[in-house]
Amino acid sequence: MKMSQFVSITLVIILGVFLNTCGQMTSKNEGMSSKSIEEASVATDDTTATDNTTTTTFTVSSVSPTDGQTSVSRTPDIIITFSDDVYGKYSAWTSTATATGSCSSSSFNWKVVHVSSDNFSQCVVDNGTVSGKTITLNLNGILAASTSYKIKIMKTSSDGYWTTKSTSGTQLDYDYTFSFTTQ
Length: 183
What we know:
The protein has helices at 3-22, 37-40; strands at residues 24-28, 31-35, 60-64, 69-72, 77-82, 92-93, 101-102, 113-116, 122-123, 126-131, 134-139, 148-153, 176-182. The protein is α+β, with helices and mostly antiparallel strands. Strand 1 and strand 2 form a beta hairpin.
């Protein structure tokens, strides 16, 4: 080993020992931070709400019509509210499909929200908007009478391209499904 390498390694070790004895290193979500000797001597409670170590989840908070609701109008607006603002590349969309079609077709597979009366074999045409914590679907046409409809909010679209996530980048943990029955 060369003398310069030995001196470099020795200096790194001395610097490490110095930093370890003169301050306290702590790990938080925002990265490493250092405390002075004065700060380190004060007792702290690392479980406080201001510690910034909580995990944020992105979930569906409420839906309208409510899950299992009956006698719903045949021309409902479907409103999905989330726990945080929804990221939307577009604030609104208009479906190119003109009639109910296969949920796996290119008319529907890019959507993260599907409406269906047959367990997602066929999807109902919709237009929608994204605003703050809310996605609102306006269905193109009148729904069938006395029919059960399921709505699925997908974590990832069927084509794998789009995700349901918050503006902070947190993705929906799982597909969320609810249903209602028309009048």
